[in-house]
Write a structure and sequence with these properties.
This protein has about 625 residues and is an alpha+beta fold. The chain is about 15% helix and about 35% strand. The protein has ten helices and 36 strands. The strands form eight sheets. Strands 29-30-32-31-33-34-35-36 form an eight-stranded mixed sheet, with helices on both faces. It has a four-stranded antiparallel sheet with strand order 1-2-3-4, with no helix packed on it. It has a four-stranded antiparallel sheet with strand order 5-6-7-8, with no helix packed on it. Helix 1 packs antiparallel against helix 2. The radius of gyration is 24 Å and the shape is globular. The two termini are about 30 Å apart.
Length: about 625
């Protein structure tokens, strides 16, 4: 959230053209002459506003109002909104101090995720390093105490993970934790006396254990580790200390019954309270500000819903929200709940249970899209859930894009997404598959990836592909495999392992050469790869070979378009270049677009450019033409 520009300024790309000698029929505002799919990207959006715990009238949110996603301060009492950050590649990682006096954000270089924390007064002023004495690193969590205590998590390739404590008036940061495996700051107790850390010292990067330290001397108060003593490893997650002075209860996420659920752990007393919520999907939670209840977010089969859980009575009461997806939610001091809602058809909006719109950015609104249909297909590992969007006009079979999500621990949901909507505008059906590895379908589904990485996910994509063709939805000669990050990896792997199944491949920021990616990527991702594949490339070379797109590159038949950020620490550029060189060596049809950013871009026009390149590449090689989406107005 950045520097001092007026939030109400016109979003990028809406300048009114010169109209001299222009026919009256063409004298329409630039926005109205922009294709609907571009309007969805350019329309001003906001995140759910975060609020300062001791000054709830002070809020912080992210917006793309200037054409780049940046941080904004919002004084709810006066109504004033102010742009805080202003960086070429954007800023989204920020927070408020509990008293609302300071805005913190993480400043990396060119999107490489390696940087330092900065801060600025809420009312405006000069930027300054927030934690002098700590060198640049990858972020590993941050907790800001009420009395000025700071806990900062860091990681570097040289040091592994470290946690540092800064006490008010005590001078330089003090290192209180260090380990080669991945770890990070979970939370700081209300009175600043206890520090919760998530760590993977046992070597499984997918499943964290918890440790609580005393801030006074960094001694260990309590440990919680579900990876020990059982036949399978289970994960734990810090959801937050109770927001009450002297309260040592820690809200914890666990997987003991095959899905994510919350429980209460009194770290001082050593007791656990199992909430046993009767909900079938993954459940997360946060505290109500007075500590009397929990705001429950239930995610199940690509939708989400909200509840209030009363701790004293164990009552679970629904918080009414429209059908669709709630991507963020927070409980306010007055008991109301604010949440960011959308559906595949309707653009996101920040709502309140009071009945109003919390924050409505100025400027044109994003055009709607079409709703999703749910499809369930029998796959080799169980029933596979897919979300399907069809063009508003025409009959199948359609040219069809299989848009594969990243993660892999993520899932596609009934939420608004400008990318898939652009394909629908251009006459394509879009199919999104929540393959094994996706969240929201239970721990067994999420954890199914180990060892046969990539190949397992593609079995589920293949099962849905067969359904799409046999049902008459998809034209088998015009199938596009597409995705970004892990989805880009699966795209390249799918093009090589099933070369006759796909007509075009579109891979954004992909893993292309798994061994080289392992060598060059950030340390936390090395740990994840060791967990997924059962070791390093030196220890299990056959698994890395079986899961690497580079192994199958010479079998690729479909034209391939690859986009990559040159500063990407997650899917580094060298391993992509290795793959592209192999395509070029045999004259395979391919195009590469490199841009000056990291793992994706926060610049709206850059995002539009990349989608336009993909649309044009597909049209050229499928013969689909420009499609209806090049016209103007709403979809």
């Amino acid at each position: 959230m950045t520097e001092s520009k007026d939030f109400t300024q016109t979003p990028a790309g809406e300048q009114t053209p010169v109209q001299e000698q222009t026919p009256a029929s063409e004298r329409t505002p630039a926005w109205e002459r922009t294709p609907a799919w571009e309007q969805r990207f350019r329309a001003p959006r906001v995140s759910l506003p975060e609020w300062a715990e001791e000054a709830p009238e002070r809020s912080l949110f992210v917006s793309n109002a200037t054409g780049t996603y940046e941080l904004y301060a919002w004084d709810r009492a006066s109504g004033e909104q102010r742009q805080v950050t202003d960086r070429p590649n954007g800023t989204t990682d920020g927070t408020l101090s509990p008293d609302g006096a300071w805005i913190w954000w993480f400043a990396d270089t060119d999107g490489d995720e390696f940087g330092v924390w900065m801060r600025q007064p809420f009312a405006g002023g000069a930027d300054e390093p927030a934690v002098p004495g700590l060198d640049a690193s990858y972020p590993g969590g941050l907790a800001i105490g009420r009395e000025g205590t700071l806990v900062i998590g860091r990681s570097t390739d040289e040091d592994g993970s470290t946690v540092h404590l800064v006490r008010p008036g005590a001078g330089a940061p003090v290192e209180i934790y260090r380990h080669r495996e991945s770890a990070g700051v979970g939370d700081l107790s209300h009175d600043g006396s206890l520090i919760a850390i998530e760590h993977t010292e046992h070597g499984d990067a997918m499943h964290s254990a918890l440790r609580v330290l005393r801030a006074a001397d960094a001694s260990v108060l309590a440990e919680l580790d579900d990876t020990k003593g059982g036949t399978e490893e289970l994960g734990l997650a810090v959801l937050g200390f109770a927001p009450v002075a002297g309260d040592s209860r820690l809200l914890v996420g666990h997987q003991r019954r095959g899905r994510w659920e919350p429980m209460l752990w009194d770290v001082a007393a050593g007791t656990e309270t199992d909430l046993r919520l009767d909900l079938p999907g993954d459940v997360s939670a946060e505290w109500y500000p007075d500590g009397s209840g929990l705001l429950i977010v239930h995610s199940f089969e690509a939708r989400s819903e909200l509840f209030r859980y009363e701790i004293a009575t164990r009552a679970l009461v629904r918080v009414e929200t429209p059908a669709g997806s709630v991507s963020e939610a927070t409980a306010r001091p007055d008991g109301s709940v604010e949440y960011l809602w959308s559906s595949a058809a309707e653009p996101p909006v920040v709502r309140s249970t009071d009945g109003g719109i919390v924050l409505d950015p100025p400027g044109p609104k994003a055009p709607p899209s079409v709703p999703v249909e749910d499809v369930w297909v029998d796959g080799p590992g169980g029933r596979v859930h897919a979300l399907v969007q069809r063009p508003a006009e025409g009959e199948g079979p359609f040219p069809t894009v299989f848009e594969v999500h990243g993660g892999p621990a993520w899932h596609d949901s009934d939420a608004f997404a400008s990318g898939p909507a652009a394909w629908v505008d251009h006459g394509y059906a879009v199919v999104r598959v929540n393959y094994r590895g996706s969240t929201g379908y239970g721990r067994e589904w999420t954890d199914a990836l180990k060892h046969r990485v990539g190949l397992i996910e593609l079995e589920d994509v293949e099962a849905v592909r067969e359904w799409a063709v046999e049902s008459g939805l998809a034209d088998p000669a015009r199938l596009v495999l597409s995705g970004g990050s892990w989805g880009g990896y699966l795209t390249l792997l799918g093009l090589g392992t099933r070369p006759d199944a796909w007509a075009v491949g579109l891979a954004a920021v992909p893993v292309a050469d798994y061994v080289t990616a392992y060598v060059d990527e950030m340390e936390a991702l090395k740990a994840l790869d060791r967990t997924l594949l059962g070791g390093s490339p030196e220890e299990v070379p056959e698994r890395y070979a079986a899961s690497s797109p580079l192994t199958y590159v010479d079998a690729v038949k479909a034209p391939v378009h690859i986009s990559a950020g040159v500063n990407d620490p997650r899917c580094p550029i060298r391993q992509i270049d290795n793959y592209v060189d192999r395509l070029a060596a045999r004259g395979a049809v391919h195009e590469v677009y490199r841009y000056d950013a990291g793992h994706g871009s926060l610049v709206v026009e850059e995002r539009i450019k990349q989608v336009a390149l993909d649309l044009a590449f597909a049209a050229k090689h499928l013969g689909t033409g420009a499609g209806p989406g090049t016209g103007t107005g709403a979809a």
